[in-house]
Amino acid sequence: MKKFLLLCIPALLMLGCGVNRQFNLKAFEKSRYEITSADSIYLANVRVSELVGKEDFQLIKMPRIALALLRKDVPLRARVNLAIENPTSSAAALNEFEYKVLLKNRELANGFVNQKISVGPNSRTVVPIHINSNIYHLLSDEKVQDAIADFIAADPEKRERKSSLTIKIRPTLGIGNKKIKYPGYITIDKEISSKILL
Q1: Residues facing residue 113 across a β-bridge
Q2: How far apart are the first and last CA of the chain?
Q3: CA 153 to chain centre
Q4: Residue 113: which domain range?
Q5: Cα-trace Rg, the chain
Q6: Following DSSP, what letter does each residue of 140-165 receive, concatenated?
Q7: pLDDT (tens digit, 0 to 9) for every residue of the chain, 198 residues total?
């Protein structure tokens, strides 16, 4: 009987850890997400904040951007700060997550954040998502070029422009030696103004 109990204790401990990590995922599902800011935004190595509010701005009139379009390699680098607020009484934690960033329902970038994120009970944390993507496929469409140029050129003090930004994240939990992916994406929508570029 003692041998049987000694064999059962490790199995129960492992099961308890698995249940606890699944509960952490439930806390993560109940968390609230908000895009708080975007900074360090560069398009073809041009700092976007320096272009905001310039009248009659056109992407193809910028030498670096025009050259990048000719090369079919238009790098976009940015940091989007994602706030996660956990309203539950249990810690929300995950090991890593995949993400997609969409502007007006068109994918700008996708990637992977390989860091453990933990949000304590009834607390909030900000997670930076670093975007590094070639957006030539978007800018090769003249309508998209015009929409982006119009958004950047808008003077936030006079005629602020708004657009919809979406981030989709797919968390991964580690249970034992296995990684378990969330079955779908958690979607965070935000209407952003040209002020976010400053």
Answers
A1: 97
A2: 70
A3: 24
A4: 2-197
A5: 22
A6: TSHHHHHHHHHHHHS-TTTS--EEEE
A7: 444 433 433 443 343 344 344 446 677 778 888 888 888 889 888 888 777 766 666 666 678 888 888 899 999 898 888 898 999 988 887 788 898 988 777 888 888 888 888 889 999 999 888 888 898 888 887 777 777 777 776 655 655 667 778 889 888 876 667 788 888 888 888 877 766 665
Q: How many domains are contained in the chain?
A: 1
Judge whether 159 and 198 are in contact, CB under 8 Å. no
CA distance 131 to 134: 10
Residues, the chain: 198
Identity of the residue numbered 27: A
Q: How far is CA 172 from CA 60, 97, 103, in A?
A: 40, 6, 24
Of 195, 169, 162, residue with least CA distance to 33: 169
Residues 6 or more apart in contact with residue 118 via CB below 8 angstroms = 91, 92, 93, 125
Q: Kindly report the pTM of this predicted structure.
A: 0.70
Q: Would you state the structure tokens that stand for residue 12, as one six-digit string?
A: 């129960």
Distance of CA 82 to the CA centre of its chain: 7
Tokens of 195: 């002020």
Hey, what are 144's tokens?
């998209």
